[in-house]
Design goal:
By secondary structure, this protein is α+β, with helices and mostly antiparallel strands. The protein has 18 helices and seven strands. It has a domain of about 70 residues. A hairpin with a 4-residue loop joins strand 6 and strand 7.
Length: about 350
């Protein structure tokens, strides 16, 4: 896969603005699957043999299975990383502080200007604004710099065998289908410890559903084609329900005596992933105003018919709209989704 000139320019600017981002891990999608109560009862070799039979029954060729699974061994470090994700271990406020550093904000402001023509073309097709694309790019892979270098098949097989998430067994099958369809070469299929791939950090199933060949070279290359990267992210969000022209949300102020009234009048959600259950049910903005919830910075709220849910951190709170749900679909973590929203606003403001 060749490095596009536009990406090369971006990398030079990135190195000048934020060289310390290289140490960060790429963001990994948070699972909603239950944690098992017991460890695996069979050896990895026995498990892999049974899994191979399942994959073969689903139509994956012996040639692909031989290339991907022969001499495969588990990676113990992967399981440890799965249990210490910052989206699961940090509070919302702490996550924002750790991710939205001054250098990340400066990098986002540089990148949104450098990539402006491409971002505008992608927005015309998918309706996702440049700030959101830059923010997802920045938080997922540090503007394309930290994508992970682990073999995706080994990572997914390790987690599928461990049984910690049923998700990974499905994703391993999806990865083998990608190889079998010759969409990606085995040696190029590298990613994070959880098997998330490329600059958008797509799991294999997301790659098959949402990856886009936006540069027209015949391959949806989310590793080195920045055209394909932005279009693939935007395609994902559009299909998750992103509505062009609407915001994700805004930071708000809640009076100290207002929290009890909110808890009494607006219950938390009861369905969805953990982060969705930490949000309130949606209410019209007029109802939030009646409970003395106000936008920070003197910002005027949109039409009162819009509905919003409240997301609360230790010290900060946010009213979030319909488009926020698309960000949660990308990665179901309030810490992640709020950070994307905030970074997108700052990047967009810096592009003018």
């Amino acid at each position: 896969m060749r490095l596009r000139a536009s990406l090369a320019v971006s990398l030079v600017a990135w190195c000048l603005v934020a060289p310390d981002l290289r140490a960060q891990e790429p963001v990994t999608p948070v699972s909603t699957a239950p944690v098992p109560q017991t460890p695996p009862q069979t050896s990895f070799a026995e498990w892999l043999a049974a899994f191979r039979e399942e994959a073969s029954a689903k139509g994956i060729s012996d040639a692909t299975l031989d290339a991907a699974l022969t001499n495969l061994t588990p990676d113990p470090s992967v399981v440890e990383k799965d249990q210490t994700q910052p989206e699961l271990t940090q509070t919302l406020d702490a996550y924002i502080a750790s991710r939205l550093t001054p250098k990340v904000l400066a990098s986002a402001a540089v990148m949104i200007r450098l990539q402006a023509p491409l971002l505008e073309r992608v927005q015309r097709v998918y309706g996702v604004p440049p700030g959101i694309m830059i923010a997802v790019w920045g938080l997922e892979s540090n503007f394309g710099q930290v994508m992970g270098s682990r073999p995706v098949i080994r990572s997914l097989a390790t987690l599928a065998y461990d049984g910690h998430r049923q998700l990974f067994r499905t994703e391993l099958l999806e990865a083998l289908m990608i190889l079998d369809q010759q969409l990606v070469r085995l040696e190029d299929m590298k990613g994070s410890w959880a098997g998330a791939m490329g600059q958008p950090q797509f799991l294999p199933s997301s790659y098959r559903k949402f990856a886009v060949d936006f540069d027209g070279d015949g391959t949806a290359n989310i590793w080195t084609s920045v055209d394909d990267v932005f279009a693939s992210m935007a395609n994902y969000l559009q299909q998750a329900g992103w509505t062009a022209g609407e915001r994700w949300g805004r930071e708000v102020d809640v009076p100290p005596d207002g929290w009890d009234a909110i808890a009494a009048r607006v219950p938390l959600r009861t369905t969805g992933c953990r982060s969705r259950k930490e949000m309130t049910e949606p209410r019209p903005l007029s109802e939030w105003r009646a409970m003395h919830v106000t936008f920070l910075g003197g910002t005027r709220p949109p039409a009162s018919k819009m509905a919003a849910s409240l997301v609360r951190g230790d010290h900060r709170a946010f009213l979030v709209y319909h488009n926020y749900e698309a960000l949660l679909d990308y990665n179901c973590s309030n810490a992640y989704a709020v950070s994307v929203g905030l970074l997108s606003d700052i990047a967009a403001a810096g592009s003018h």
